[in-house]
Structures are given as C-alpha cells and as structure tokens.
Amino acid sequence: IRFQGKLYFDEKQTPVRMLGTILDITEFKRLQQQKDDFISIASHELKTPMTSLKASIQILEKLIKTGTSPDKVSTFIQKANTSLLKMQHLIESLLNVSRISAGQLGLQKTSFNLAALINDSCEHVRMTSDQELVVTGDANLDVYADSAKIEQVVINLLNNAVKYAPASRQIIITIDKRGNVARVSVQDFGEGIAQDKIPHLFERYYRVDSTGLQYSGLGLGLYISAEIIERHGGKIGVKSESGKGSTFWFTLPIHN
Ligand code: ADP
C-alpha cells in the first residue's frame, strides 16, 4: 500500500485534516514481477540456442582447418541451422506479442494450398525431431489467409506435440473440410492435459506446471496462435484426455 497526500494543521499546529490517496500497488508489483520473470526466462531461452550455435561454429572452424570430410562438416552446419531456426522462431514470437499488444498484428492474405503449407511446416519440425509426422486428409483445400502466420500456428502446434508428448511415436495431422471452413487437427498420443487446465491454455504466459515447467518455453505459443486464428475469423481449441493424448485443432474460412 502506498500513501500520497498532505496533512493540514490549525493555528496551534494540531493536525486537523488529511487529504490524499491510498494506492494499492499489489497488482502493480505483481505485473512488475511478471515482467522481470519474463525477461529472465526469455533471455535464458535465447541463450540456449545461441550457446549451441557458438559451439557449432567453433567446431566447424576446427573441422575446416583440419580438412575433415564434407559429411561431418555438413552435420555441424545442420546443427547451427537448427539453433538459428529456434532463435528465429523465438524472436518472431516476441515480436508477435508486441504486435498483438499494440493492436498491430497485420495480416497479409493470399490464396494458398493448406496441405502444401502443412507439409512445409512438417519439414521444418523434422529438422529437430525424430517423431513420425503423418499428414492425412484433403490435399486440395485452398484458404485465403496470411500464410506466414498460419505456418507459425502449425509449427507451434507441431512443436508442442513433439515437446510435450515425447513418448508419442506418431503425430497425426488431419486436414478436412467442414461446411464452409477448413479444419486442421494435430493429434498426439502423449500424457494429455488435465481438464481443469484446458480453459487457461490459450492465455498469455500460461504453462501447465505439472508438464510445462520441465521443458523450455515461454507460454506464448498458444496465445499467439489463438490471436492469429481469431484474427482470420477462425476458431481454435483442444480436446484432451489424461493418459491418452491431445488433439489441438483450428479452423479457417475456405477460399472459393
Ligand atoms: P510453451 O510451450 O512455451 O510453454 P504454449 O503456449 O505453446 O507455451 O503452451 C502452453 C502450455 O500448454 C505448455 O506449457 C504445456 O504445459 C501445455 N501444452 C501445449 N501443448 C501440449 C500438448 N500437445 N500436450 C500436453 N501439454 C501441452
């Protein structure tokens, strides 16, 4: 609690009146703390791929000097590339959060084939994961949307499936047409999510403490994904069963 004000005295210097405001700064302090925690987590999240990128470059330098085989060199170039992609994805997320806060998440819409975009996103995720990604459903659906942002949504959902369902050998991505919308679902066979946590998943900074905290993350992926999908006039949601896995899905209006 913070007090700001003034005391008034009579001619005998006895205080007779006090005027001022009492400010409850608990919420202010909580937000400040949240901001500090966020900066520290975000810096750590950036530092990890950066350290690994630095290590790859140092190894590459040595390998090139000693004339090592191109195969070995190429492995480390791949590693460096993976670290760069992680950093790029993280920075893109941070930028998107500021754009959302400022009401400036602009959309650049074009018409594109949904299956092609999903296959590209799978290629991207395969660079960092061994799990099998299977794409099924309607390969001919076109949507009118911001392809870079939709790709971000798909990559977020795929990365989450890979990260939070490591025991799930397969991840199934299904594309289908339901009335006048296209629906994409990402199904994993991992631990699933407790029902009481589900309503919070799409909130900013939210992470499930029982599963989320042992993995790296900022609690922004689903928040950003929801904003992107809703800005397109689509819907996003999840169905999950503890011990059986989760299916995250979103819809987009179909381009005729
Ligand atoms: P982050 O992955 O950075 O924590 P997200 O917004 O992408 O942020 O996810 C929020 C939380 O939702 C995660 O911390 C995790 O606890 C939970 N979650 C997301 N996807 C899955 C999934 N496929 N299976 C289980 N839990 C998940």
From TrEMBL:
All residue ranges annotated as the PAC domain in the record: 1-37
All residue ranges annotated as the Histidine kinase domain in the record: 41-256
Full protein name: histidine kinase
Whole-protein residues included: 351 to 606 of 606
